[in-house]
Amino acid sequence: MTTDLPADVMVPFAVHVDFQSGALTPDPVILRRSHADLAGYFVNESDAPGEDEMYAVHEIRVPATNNNLLSSTTVLQPGTVGGEYFMTKGHFHATRDRAEIYLTLSGQGLLVMALEDGTTQTKEMRPGIVNYVPGHWAHRSVNTGDVPLVFYAVYIGDAGYDYATIADQGFPVIVVEGEDGPEVVPNPRYTGR
Amino acid sequence: MTTDLPADVMVPFAVHVDFQSGALTPDPVILRRSHADLAGYFVNESDAPGEDEMYAVHEIRVPATNNNLLSSTTVLQPGTVGGEYFMTKGHFHATRDRAEIYLTLSGQGLLVMALEDGTTQTKEMRPGIVNYVPGHWAHRSVNTGDVPLVFYAVYIGDAGYDYATIADQGFPVIVVEGEDGPEVVPNPRYTGR
Prior knowledge:
2 copies of one chain form a homodimer.
Chain A: E1 13-17, E2 24-25, E3 29-34, E4 53-60, E5 69-76, E6 80-81, E7 84-85, E8 100-106, E9 109-114, E10 120-125, E11 129-133, E12 138-143, E13 149-156, H1 164-169, E14 173-178, E15 181-186
Antiparallel strand pairs in A: 1-2, 3-4, 4-5, 5-13, 6-7, 8-11, 8-13, 9-10, 9-12, 14-15
């Protein structure tokens, strides 16, 4: 039998997730994003809601190492800015090849993904859907419904975050309110291609 | 901009999870375990149910690499064998330090965990509970309720499976039906310490 355990073995723990609200119990780490934090992300910001919360990320924090799993719930409010639905900033993983899993718990939306060469994929988000985001795909969630979009995301601890590429270039596509519902259209301000 | 994407970038995909039944859509890979597959795992097997299904694992299969996330639902039926609740075989990860996350979707049970030095931890499983299983902890789920226990598990692709250690040594503790509910008691046949 092997008993040479490393000194830093973690102790198992549990957190409760409320599938409707996305609240965690206990919930020590909450990141809140208002529209002001996303200034410049929407094409037309004349009706931007300012300091109101657009989304919150509730983290289950563990050391950000390659053997751990980071996870969080995101609660993305409904609404639009200049006809674009509320969305998260979106990012690549700093370690590009790391995958991520999204499990939608309530609400509805779209998961927009893009490679650095401008290739895009858009997938539906609704309760019970597991979205697999393979390595190399930037990912942004968009609330296309009337209620908060709540999802649970899991990713490898050393994935890291590259927000700068999306902040600089934009996403190749945006999601706008159309006459018959959400439309995924080219982003006129995308500079990545 | 970086456009030197590797040739094997995966395409995003989605799978629907039924939180009540654990069924996946699509559901190409299902591993079924009857009591016959767990012969020798229970202390007293005189009333073992034989070939009836004890649990099923529905896998979302991706390449088992360190940048991917493997995930699955497990549907563990209710029942007992010699007073021990139905349970999964339980295993260590072959790559010992890899963590795993369990999200219980329906039913109730216990997640029993053990280090190779015989240290144990037992945590409640019920809908909405995220159980964090850090690296080095063997993990087994036990259905202590009257309905199927359904949970979604996510782990790092290169974690691997070591079933042999538990098959040989047993778990340090077992979960038995007591007068006032489930009791976690020492396993008289545990040989690991």
